[in-house]
Design brief:
This protein is α+β, with helices and mostly antiparallel strands and about 160 residues long. The chain has a single domain, classed as Thiol Ester Dehydrase, Chain A. Helix content is about 20%, strand content about 25%. The protein is built from 3 helices and 8 strands; from the N terminus they run H-H-E-E-H-E-E-E-E-E-E. The strands form 3 sheets. It has a 4-stranded antiparallel β-sheet with strand order 1-2-4-5. Strands 3-6 form a two-stranded antiparallel ribbon. Strands 7-8 form a two-stranded antiparallel ribbon. Helix 1 crosses helix 3. The longest helix is centred in the middle third of the chain and has 18 residues. It is globular, with a radius of gyration of 15 Å. The C terminus is likely disordered.
């Protein structure tokens, strides 16, 4: 099956969703060739010792969106992996946020490193930004705007 056919089978219930979504309480809400949108709700179970959401939760949600955007654009028999992921979290997140959404988008395909872009949206204060890594996961993220729920893309 091609990448997009895999996701269509998951949405139709013919294939199970990956268990990481249940573990971290997020799901794919939309997938089309070159685009994947994930949404989740961080919970108390995702807290670090400081009493905020662990950075691994952010990274996994973002990596899932970016990876699945690439996967959805692949023909049958092709595979992918994340080569590098760099995230700078500039403000903590708690389980009080209603939902967090990450969108991954392939900028252009290629035989070696298709550079996707990812962005965040949600209703909370400024939360995180990502820097554009050197290789495969070329990403940009958004500051979350508490006042209106819109995302603003930054480098």
């Amino acid at each position: 099956m091609s990448g997009i056919e895999v996701f269509q089978a998951m949405f139709d219930g013919r294939l199970p969703a990956p268990p990481i979504g249940e573990t971290l309480d997020f799901v794919a809400v939309h997938v089309e060739p070159g685009v994947a949108v994930f949404q989740g709700k961080p919970g108390f179970a995702h807290y670090n010792p400081l009493g905020t959401v662990h950075g691994g939760w952010f990274a996994t949600l973002l990596d899932s969106a970016v990876g699945c955007a690439v996967h959805s654009s692949l023909p049958a028999g092709k595979a992918y992996t994340t080569l590098e992921l760099k995230i700078n979290i500039v403000r903590a997140l708690t389980d009080k946020v209603p939902l967090v959404r990450a969108e991954g988008r392939v900028i252009h395909g290629g035989n070696r490193w298709p550079p996707p872009r990812a962005s965040w949206s949600g209703r909370t204060a400024s939360c995180m930004r990502t820097r554009r890594p050197r290789a495969w996961c070329s990403m940009r993220a958004a500051d979350w705007q508490a006042s209106n729920g819109r995302s603003a893309t930054t480098d």
